[in-house]
């Protein structure tokens, strides 16, 4: 089974920059995106009849939003954490026979850290939600988690210490989540790999010089580790300030009929 996650930073713009070409080449069984930045009816995405599409739109126009395109028929779909809604469109949970898939766009603490308190509270709720799911069946989490966990996960760790996405508080929340029974799949395979990033500032020549951060992840319940085959970062793929991340697993992924509507 192949899963892909990509923060597209505006799907309409990304479609004009090659999104569909990559989508077809990737040939994923499940393809998750974050920061769609659109509302229902603002795009008609032709992905083929084998893909069912699920969207969670933010109430604010042009902001946030997540989507999942899947060949596998989910047993259920949930929008949000405590309630079956998410005003910022940040979470989609699909239940499959053998696992839950959680596609998430974690809130940014903002440059001035004005949203850090909210972010930390959100992290606690999100962790509790994942643990409730994990008590039922294994969980695969993917998306833009908006944190570089360790110094190895960004180019200039010292100069970014305390900045949004690399505060001690945000990093500690990630540590706590991993210690709760989840595995960072990329570090599972490549614990010491440096210069492996998934986001780059839009400032001139930053991406060309690979001055980046790894803030896009696939996390899995520990008991799924024997099924992991590889975790990849498609850093060569343009179209967004993020690049896609990929997870390969030794799980059945037979195409199934789309959900009837």
From TrEMBL:
CDD domains: Ape1-like_AP-endo. It holds the Pfam family Exo_endo_phos. Its cofactor is Mn(2+); Mg(2+). PANTHER family: AP ENDONUCLEASE (PTHR22748), DNA-(APURINIC OR APYRIMIDINIC SITE) ENDONUCLEASE (PTHR22748:SF6). It comes from Paenibacillus thermoaerophilus. GO terms for molecular function: double-stranded DNA 3'-5' DNA exonuclease activity. This is Exodeoxyribonuclease III. Belongs to the DNA repair enzymes AP/ExoA family. Residues 4-242 form the Endonuclease/exonuclease/phosphatase domain.
């Amino acid at each position: 089974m192949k899963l892909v996650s990509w923060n597209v930073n505006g799907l309409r713009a990304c479609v004009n920059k090659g999104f569909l070409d990559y989508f077809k080449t990737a040939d994923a069984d499940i393809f998750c995106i974050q920061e769609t930045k659109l509302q229902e009816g603002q795009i008609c995405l032709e992905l083929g009849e084998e893909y069912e599409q699920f969207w969670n739109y933010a109430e604010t126009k042009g902001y946030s939003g997540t989507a999942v395109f899947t060949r596998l028929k989910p047993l259920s779909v949930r929008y949000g954490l405590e309630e079956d809604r998410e005003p910022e469109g940040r979470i989609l949970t699909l239940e499959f026979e053998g696992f839950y898939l959680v596609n998430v766009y974690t809130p940014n603490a903002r440059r001035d850290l004005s949203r850090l308190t909210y972010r930390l509270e959100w992290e606690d709720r999100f962790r509790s939600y994942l643990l409730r799911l994990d008590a039922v069946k294994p969980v695969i989490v993917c998306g833009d988690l908006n944190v570089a966990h360790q110094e190895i996960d960004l180019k200039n760790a010292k100069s970014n210490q305390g900045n949004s996405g690399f505060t001690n508080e945000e990093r500690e929340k990630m540590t706590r989540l991993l210690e709760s029974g989840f595995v960072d799949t990329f570090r599972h395979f490549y614990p010491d790999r440096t210069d492996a990033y998934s986001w780059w500032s839009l400032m001139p020549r930053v991406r060309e010089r690979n001055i980046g951060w790894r803030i896009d992840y696939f996390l899995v319940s520990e008991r799924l580790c024997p099924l992991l085959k590889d975790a990849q970062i498609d850093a060569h793929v343009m179209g967004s300030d993020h690049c896609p991340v990929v997870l390969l697993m030794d799980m059945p992924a037979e195409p199934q009929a789309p959900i009837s509507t």
